From TrEMBL:
Source organism (scientific name): Aequorivita antarctica
UniProt cross-references to Pfam families, sorted A to Z: DUF4199
Name recorded for this polypeptide: DUF4199 domain-containing protein
Keywords from the named record: Membrane, Transmembrane, Transmembrane helix
Entry-linked InterPro entries: DUF4199
Residue spans crossing the bilayer: 7-26, 32-49, 70-89, 109-134
Amino acid sequence: MFEVYSRYGIWIAVILIAYFLLLKLIGLDQYPILSVVNGLIYGAGLYMAMKKYSSRKNKFKYEKGFEVGLLSGGIATIIFTVFMAIYMYQIDTEFATAIMERWDLEFALGTLMLLLTIMIMGFATTLVLTLSFMQLLKKSWNTKDGNRNTL
């Protein structure tokens, strides 16, 4: 299981970083609304990770699939947040200032506030998408075999 969620978590983070750098290259990095695509990236990666794990197991347990989704997204979120911290503190120190001026927020908390927002958004997206995808991937109890689980 470690192999599945670590591989997919790293790939999600790499694609998020590439997407951010592409936005920076074409000059659209100042528009936070474009981070909606991050949800699509998380969604595709988490679904593929959980689908891969479920295809390896004969008996796919809800808890294990949920764990794969949460850990894949958690790894991706941590890697992307670390990248953004390095980017905002070392490479482009004016990035946080520009975003905060656009949002009309206090400058003193600029970079830290953005990093906290990125981390919370990543974990929240991971949780919601994992719960949603597990509804698609779990085995239904509405079968002859599932009837034995009723009162």
